[in-house]
């Protein structure tokens, strides 16, 4: 069953959760539906639809983090790897990971099609990817899951392309980890700091 939480409430309550379990309050099919709806309905400049996603659940999710461990073990000094591995093992305990990509072929296609805006499409591509990430993050948490966002690309890109048959034209942007929270958010509500909104927002013409 889809969440009945209002959009405004879901936005306000979205947080970063690092302590996650492999349990989920919703079935895998609902998680896939959330990602699918994001891919279908989140807007993009000129309806370019450049964002791609790979949903990894259960054993496939754990495989992805095992690959990340292997890659970083080869790249980091032993003392730094030990700290990084603690984080990797924490992510591995979750339910799943969503890999967010941008299709560079599609970006180039629209650059060639609309030459006036050729230099703008890479930035617009990043914007729509961020909107997809935020939409999925907020929707998953509205369903009772905890989420955090990671960026271990580009070191893991080639291995993930091989393992999960990802086209080489897809450019990895982020890894979204999720699972049932086992503790509160990384920053408790009473510790969350907001810079003055008056310094970040202007309103003109309101009646």
β-strand percent reads: 15-25%
The value of Rg in angstroms is: 19 Å
H and E order: HEHEHHEHHEHE
Query: Helical segment tally?
Result: 7
Structural class, by secondary structure, is: alpha+beta
Q: Based on CA inertia axes, which overall geometry fits? A: globular
Counting DSSP E segments of at least 2 residues, the number of strands comes to 5
Q: CA-to-CA gap between the ends?
A: 40 Å
Low-confidence stretches: none
Helix percentage range: 40-55%
Main sheet summary: 5 strands, antiparallel
Mean pLDDT, as a whole number? 97
Keywords:
5-stranded antiparallel beta sheet; 44% helix; single chain; 16% strand; 7 helices; 207 residues; alpha+beta
Summarize the structure.
This protein is of the alpha+beta class and 207 residues long. 44% of the residues lie in helices and 16% in strands.
């Amino acid at each position: 069953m889809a969440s009945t939480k209002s959009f405004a409430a879901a936005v306000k309550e979205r947080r970063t959760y690092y302590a996650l379990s492999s349990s989920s309050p919703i079935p895998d099919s609902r998680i896939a539906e959330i990602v699918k709806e994001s891919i279908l309905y989140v807007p993009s400049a000129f309806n370019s639809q450049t964002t791609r996603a790979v949903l990894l659940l259960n054993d496939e999710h754990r495989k992805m983090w095992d690959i990340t461990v292997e890659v970083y073990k080869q790249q980091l000094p032993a003392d730094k790897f030990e700290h990084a591995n603690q984080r990797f093992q924490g992510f591995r305990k979750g339910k799943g990971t969503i890999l967010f990509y941008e299709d560079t072929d599609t970006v180039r296609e629209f650059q060639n099609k609309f030459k006036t805006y050729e230099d703008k499409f890479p930035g617009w591509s990043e914007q729509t990817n961020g909107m997809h990430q935020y939409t999925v993050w907020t929707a998953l948490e509205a369903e009772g899951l905890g989420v955090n966002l990671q960026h271990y690309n580009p070191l893991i890109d080639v291995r993930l392309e091989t393992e999960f048959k990802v086209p080489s034209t897809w450019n990895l942007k982020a890894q979204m980890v999720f699972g049932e929270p086992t503790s509160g958010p990384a920053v408790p509500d009473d510790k969350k700091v907001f810079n003055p909104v008056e310094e970040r927002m202007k309103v003109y013409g309101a009646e």
